[in-house]
Specification:
Elements (H helix, E strand, L loop, with lengths): L6 H9 L6 H13 L4 H14 L3 H12 L19 E5 L7 H11 L4 E5 L9 H5 L11 H11 L1 E5 L6 H11 L7 H13 L5 E8 L8 H17 L4 E7 L8 E2 L1 H12 L6 H17 L6 H13 L2 H12 L10 H4 L5 E6 L4 E6 L1 H13 L13 E3 L7 E2 L4 E7 L2 H14 E4 L9 E5 L2
Parallel strand pairs: 1-4, 2-3, 4-5
Antiparallel strand pairs: 5-13, 6-9, 7-11, 8-10, 8-12, 9-11
Length: 446
């Protein structure tokens, strides 16, 4: 190929199953960014990739080109050592997934540096950024210099993605969204990694979810995505490991924004009372983050250190310091109810029969929160942080007639009753005990 961008020639190569060179991919992405490549050409390239896939080398070239289409944080220029344990986690999303709120402080308390760039919720899944915005004063968009200062002083900072990070991905995704190519594993991989690697990470852990509340419900497809992300990230020079985790039920006992912040703080301050699945997945991710970043010599050693940070309260202290550093209250641990408020109307979702919880339509539960105003289907929509669900039953729980399957927090009775019906329909009971499966199903190593 010549040094001149000819989009149709690159599209033809991929359409015919050929390998596109790194230089041509870089030129194509540059054309996406500056507008020389049209939406029709983006759509054609996306469809060609959808049907013919990409090699890890092509995937790495696409990822790095999209990463480099905008700002890339250089931590050495901000005063950090080149070998600093700068590590992050990305989740493919789910219902009740408040893991980041505890995970970043745990890893930071153990010596890792966690500059976490998070997103908002869309559809049935909740967003980490939305949860933090339930905390009054919390600023999710500090300057890069302030972001680095908080990471240096506290050990972690959780912020939102700015328009300057991976702008090519933003345009590419918008076209994919309306041309039936969102489900392409190579394109999902490049989209995720281009944004994550723009944070200048030295290592990354992926939490790839499967099940009824996951983006990819099918286990085999979720595993294929996890394996591809690990391969492509490795080819792009960032050591990455993926955990396949179960999203066949709500993670933890809450779903919403303020209610998940409350559960997260209670997790940090009283870990022995926390939901066991939430503990398992959080500590597993923390252990792998500490190991892959070089803070700990083994996963077992890292797991023990993570548990100690909870038991001795150091992770909770880091959380409070991070919240205060980003403009939130400096006493969130001791005055949680004063700062984080929930809707006052409560409505228990009573069970009509006795039995063991055997199944959840987790997506339906997430959509019940969305219908209350606690989520969005339009990225620009505002949400109600105060509504949500608490005391959500877990698979394996024994339920008697009249016991609550969940408690709705809403502003009015009519809204609460509608959400209650959705939850009741989403939870299935059986007459016999059900076998429980581990929340971490598999680990994909680089």
């Amino acid at each position: 190929m010549s040094d001149i961008l000819i989009p149709q020639a690159i599209i033809q190569q991929k359409r015919d199953g050929q390998t596109v060179s790194e230089a041509d991919i870089a030129r194509f992405v540059e054309g996406i960014t500056d507008g020389r490549v049209t939406d029709a050409q983006i759509a054609a390239f996306g469809m060609a990739v959808f049907f013919n896939g990409m090699s890890p080398q092509e995937g790495a070239a696409l990822t790095l080109s999209m990463r480099d289409s905008g700002d890339v944080i250089d931590w050495t220029s901000l005063g950090f050592d080149a070998e600093a344990p700068i590590v992050d986690k990305h989740s493919t999303g789910g219902v009740g997934d408040k893991v980041s709120l505890m995970l970043a402080p745990i890893v930071a308390a153990c010596g890792g540096l966690v500059p976490m760039i998070s997103g908002r919720g869309l559809g049935h899944t909740g967003g980490t950024l939305d949860k933090f915005e339930a905390i009054p004063g919390y600023d999710p968009y500090p300057s890069i210099e302030r972001f680095a200062e908080i990471v240096r002083d506290v050990g972690c900072s959780i912020i939102g993605q700015t328009g300057e990070l991976a702008p090519a991905d933003k345009r590419f995704y918008a076209v994919r969204d309306v041309t039936a190519t969102v489900e392409s594993i190579p394109l999902i991989t490049a989209s995720i990694l281009s944004k994550k690697l723009s944070a200048g990470l030295n290592s990354l852990i992926m939490d790839v979810k499967f099940g009824s509340g996951a983006f990819m419900a099918d286990y085999d497809k979720a595993k294929e995505l996890a394996e591809n992300i690990v391969r492509v990230a490795g080819a792009a020079g960032t050591p990455t490991r993926a955990l396949l985790t179960d999203m066949n039920q709500v993670l933890g006992r809450t779903a919403g924004n303020a209610v998940e912040v409350i559960e997260s703080v209670e997790f940090l301050t009283n870990p022995s009372a926390a939901d066991s699945r939430l503990v398992d997945v959080t500590l597993a991710l923390a252990a792998h983050m500490l190991h892959i970043s070089g803070v700990s010599g083994s996963v077992d050693e890292a797991l023990q250190a993570s548990q100690r940070s909870l038991d001795d309260g150091s992770a909770a202290v880091v959380f409070e310091k991070m919240v205060a550093a980003q403009g939130g209250p400096n006493d969130i641990l001791s005055s949680l109810s004063k700062h984080v408020t929930v809707a006052e109307q409560t409505f228990a979702v009573s069970s009509d029969r006795a039995g063991f919880v055997s199944e959840q339509d987790t997506r339906a539960i997430g959509m019940a929160v969305v219908a209350m105003g606690g989520g969005r289907t339009d990225p620009s929509a505002k949400i109600d942080h105060a509504v949500g669900l608490t005391d959500i039953v877990q698979i394996g729980d024994r339920i008697e007639v009249g016991d609550p399957l969940a408690v709705v927090q809403a502003h009015d009775l009519a809204t609460a009753e509608r959400a209650a019906e959705e939850v009741k329909s989403a939870v299935k009971l059986s007459d016999t005990e059900v076998s429980l499966t581990p929340v971490v199903a598999e680990i994909i190593e680089g």
